[in-house]
Each structure stands twice: as structure tokens, then as C-alpha cells.
Amino acid sequence: MSVKTVAYTGNEAVAQAMKQIHPDVVAAYPITPQTEIVQIFSTFVADGLVDTEFVTVESEHSAMSATVGAAAAGARAMTCTSSQGLALMYEVVYIAASLRLPIVMPVVNRALSGPINIHCDHSDSMGARDSGWIQLFSENAQEAYDNVLQAVRIAEHKDVLLPVMVMMDGFIISHALENVTFLDDETVRRFIGEYRPDYYLLNPDHPITVGAFDLFDYYFEHKRQQVEAMRMAKPVILEVGQEYGRLSGRSYGLFEGYRLEDAELAIVVLGSTAGTAKAVVDGLRREGVKAGLLKLRVFRPFPREELAQALRHVRALAVLDRSDSFGVVGGPLFAEVRAALYDLPERIPTVNYIYGLGGRDIDLEMIGRVYADLAEIARTGRPRELVTYLGVRE
Amino acid sequence: MGELLEIRWHGRGGQGAKTAAQLLGESAAAAGKYIQAFPEYGPERMGAPVLAFNRISEEPITIHCHVKHPRYVVVLDDTFVGKVDFTDGVPPNGALIINTALSPAEMRRRLQLEGNPIRVWTVDATKIALETIGRAIPNTPMMGALVRATGILKLEDLIEDTRRKLEKKFRHKQEVIAGNLEAIRRAYEEVQEG
Amino acid sequence: MSASKESAGPQPKEYQGKIQPGWREIPRGGMILQAGNAREFETGDWRVTRPVWIPENCIQCLFCWIYCPDAAVLLEDGKVIGFDYAHCKGCGICAHECPGKRGAKAIKMVAESEAEEASQA
Q1: What does the domain layout of chain A look like in residue ranges?
Q2: Which of A63, A304, C11, C73 satisfies CB 3.0 to 4.6 Å to C65 for a cystine?
Q3: What span, in angstroms and rounded, lies between the C-alpha atoms of A107 and B53?
Q4: How many domains, chain C?
Q5: How close B72 gets to chain A, by Cα (Å)?
Q6: A177 and B35: CB-CB below 8 Å?
Q7: C contact test, residue of A101, A206, A224, A225 with most C CBs within 10 A
């Protein structure tokens, strides 16, 4: 097996992963900041580097519809999108999950309109958090590449058969050049294996019906099956993450704890901000502050027990949300983390920071301020503010 | 821990600030360094002021925030002088590398940097570009000037890596490749400190 | 209050005399794995009027067979022999389209209640 390290943008890295996956069908519509993925992949098709059926559609609703159709027909099918594109796909996003089609979709995170904005926040994928898709978040271009490859294995596992979204932060990762190490084509081919669906529409020997009307007598049972598939996804994600680690030297779990084991002050965060926060943690550790962080990789299925166990010793905790949930207390990640901690015998003072909406920069100082607040909370035992808007002008 | 070097590029849409940051990043990566290269995306219009950034380190780079304290600032267009504060966030051991026909001393006067420890380098990259490439695209020569002023890469590494990349894009236009490489070399030689 | 314990349990699998399997026992994603199982869904009891075939007026044009939306016109060796009353919904399209012989229709719609009485008599 050979590996190759190059300087690639997040979008280039994901397009490379798609090329190596070599799906039967890709149906996609361009939208900033995902556009390059579609554009680069279409050049692979035009240059004959892949023989994927590339369907140019007229909207994201059609992109997801064509992808669902292809997957139901028995194809390994992919699409990708951002923001408004995901919003326009919406009804079909739910259908993909409920039909149990193992579609893999990179989502380049971008704020939802309005006001219209092209930069990163997580409101797009958070809006789809209850759609029944597995959701993996990536810190950098390397993780985006690694996650897309693993997503194929997770989605197609016979105990799972659910679609997977792989997130990376728009512009911050998608348009930034970084060092990325690729596996060679043959290694990827062997890792993802051949897709052999058990039931599919284009099988004349065993005709089936997909998408039939489902009333009060069966709908509930089918939803219950989706719950079970999500539950089964957790061990599969871990197993695939370990196997990928043996191949690449980069193992993946449900989340990454960074200097967390003995941490007294910790934050929970998704995506590229985790990398910035690691530098803050290192700085605080040099000053003798027991700071740590938990970077969540798998938002769906949400690793409730594992996360609570990993955080149970912490004296004060901050959850950083790059999207808000209006009319509730804090963002979606905060709600999940706080609910997960509810079953611990001791209550951990936990606060929420909403940051980075519409691409607002979050720097080392701002994250440093969060840890300073946590130190104060650990001292007094109670937070001053439950939800803080980090970096907004008053 | 080695230094995390940060660079800020000032240019106008169409002058190649983003491309220069990417080419430099790729060359540094090819030389075994950890890198980042990214532009600041605003309204993308020909002629509008744009920023691009590099981070270069001997160790993996995890931070993903904006560059606030660049050690080096490269200015592709001296029409910004007096309108943009190039020294914003630059530490005392930093340097400005500016594309201008002015001498470093004259530029230092115009920027009111007399007595400031920040170093000022100047080179007429537009003239070099016109004479070597035939177009007023100052980005590749400014990479040569940056490498001379900072020593972040060996000139030959930069030239070799740039040649490899240009050969992919301009296979049938050898004069474009030769012109760009000559521009890098000339700017490396002609850039002046003062 | 004695019913409360039972109501918290799972839904019984028997409903109106039919067995409905639990979520572990049905194909995933609402897939139907048996081809042609519409045959098992008998729609004949939706009928208010039924078509009755009058062989002496039939010219075997097969318009009824072409137009029937439920494939409920029975053929044998390419000729009409009657109707599949287990699936015919009684829409009457066959009778409407029937050209008959010299103005006399080969299909007439009869009220279901009359037809039942007639068959019992």
C-alpha cells in the first residue's frame, strides 16, 4: 500500500475520495461552497478517469431524487450539497433515510438564508439532524477525505443501511489548502469493497416494490426499524474507524478527546473550531491549567453514554454551537450534550456558547475567554450566563 | 515547537494573490512542511482589494481562525499605499515585501515607518512580469521576492515545484513556463531591503 | 384503572382478524418483496354495481378488456368469458365502452344488491 501527501483544499480532497470510491451514479447540483466538488468530479467523468453516470440535474430536489432513484435501482450513488441546496432537498432527504438507501453525501457547511450568506455555520446540517441520516463532522480536509471513505462502509453495512452525511466547514476547510494524505486507489477499492445490495429495483429475478403507501398499520414499525438501524450504526462506525486506522494510521471513534482524561475545564465542539481550540488547550496546559476538549465526530447517532462517561470527571463544561435553535435554551449540540449528562450522578455545570454564525471568525482569544469563564464557573460552582453569544456586537 | 509562520497577501482581484498563496503553500508542502493557504472570500470582483493567507510550520497546524498577526506581508499593488495599513498586526520582527518601483527607503517614508523595526523590501514585480511573462501579473515574481526576504524556502525548490505545476497547465506554452520561472528568479535577485 | 398496565405494552399483532407482524419481522424501508401481491388485495367488495356479461350481444372486440383499470375482465384463448368479481370495483367503464351488437350492449351494470338476490334465488 502506498500513501501520498499533497496540498489539497477540502473540496479537492472530497472530490478525490469520490473518484476513488468510483460510484455508479452521481447526481449533483452546484452550490457555493460545495461547487468545486461537483466541478472537479465532473472533470474526472469528462476525462474518463471514472465511468460514473453523472446526472446534471436542475435543482437539489432533483439531485437527491435522482440519487434516491439510482440507489433504489441498486447503484452505489452519491451527491453533495451545501446550505440552501440541502434545504431544497429536504423532503427527499427524509425519503432516502426511510427507504434505507446507503447514499453518501458530503455537506459543505454554510449558513442558511436569510440574510443570504455563503460562509460557514452548521445551521444547514443541524436542520437535517432528525432526518434519519448518520452525520459525521470533520475537523479538516484530511478528516473530510477519511470520513467520506468510511461513510461508504458504514452506510452499506447490512446492519445499518442508512444514508450518511459527511460535513466539513465551508471555506474554512473547503477552500483552504492543507496537507492531506491519500490512500492509493487499490487500497480504497479493497477497503470499500463491492456494493452488493440484497434487494434492488433493477433485479428482474426478484422484482420488488419500493416506496409503497404505508398507513397507520405499518408506518410506525418502519420508523421503529430506523431507530434500530441508528443504534446498530454505533458499533459499525467504531469497527470501520478501527479498520481504517489499521490501513491509514488514522483511527476514528465517535469523538476525539484531546487532553481530556484529567481535564477539569472542557469544551465540546464540532468541526474546524476543534483544531483552533486544541492550540488554546496546549497554551493553557503550559500555564498549568487542566484544560481539555471533546471533538464530536458522530452527531447522529448521538453517542450519549460514551460522551457522558468521557466528561463525567469535568468540573465545568462549555458546549460550542455553530448554529442556534431559536426559542430554546442554546444550540442543538448543547441540548444533546446536556441531556446526555442528565443521567450522571453528579451535575456538571454546563454552559453554551453560540459562535461563528455566517462565518464569523472564532480565534484563540475567544476560545481562551471560554476557558476563563469555565475556570470561574468551576470556582463558584454555578454559571453566570447559561447561553453566551461569542463574538457578536452588542 | 517550531515557529508557526503566518503570511498575509494584499492584492486586487485578478492579480493572483490567492493563486500565489496556493502556489507557495504547495511548494512548501512539497518541501515537507505543514501548510495552509486560503483567501478571504468577500465579494469577488476584478480590481477589488483581496486578502490571502499562508501558514507554514515544521509541525502539524490545527488552528483554523483568521491570520491576525502575520510575520510577513506581501503587497502585490502599491496603489494601496496610504489606504490600507499593511502593518496591521505585524510584529516588530516582521517584514513587508512590496511590489513597487520605489526604493525601500522611499516606501518606508511613504508608509511613515521611519524608525520602525519592521523591515521593508521592495521590488518592481510588475515591470519584471511585463518583461518576462508579457502580462502585468505580479504574483509569481513576488513569490521569488518573498523567498529571498524570508528564507522560508530554497529558491531552487520554489522554482522546481512551480515548474512542475506550470507544466501540467501550460504543456503547450513553454514560453509561459519559462517566463514565470525567470520572473521568480529575477525578483529574487532584484528585491531590495531598506 | 386495571387497563393501564395493558395499554403500556406493545400493540397486539392481531387486528380485525388479521395478523400484523412486528417491526423486526417486516422488510426494511417499506419494501414489498413479493411481486404481484396486488392480487391478494381484493377490491371486489368496494362494488355498488357490477357488470354482467351478455354473451349473445358480445362481438369480442375486447374494448372492455383494454379499458378495465383493474384487469378484471377474464379472457380465455383471447375471448371474453366474464369478470373477476374478486377485484372488479364496479366502475362501469367496460359497460360504457361496450359497442354491443346492433345497438344491444353486451355488458350491463346491475345493482349489487339485485345481483346478489338473483344469484341466491
Answers
A1: 3-248, 255-390
A2: C73
A3: 25
A4: 1
A5: 19
A6: yes
A7: A225
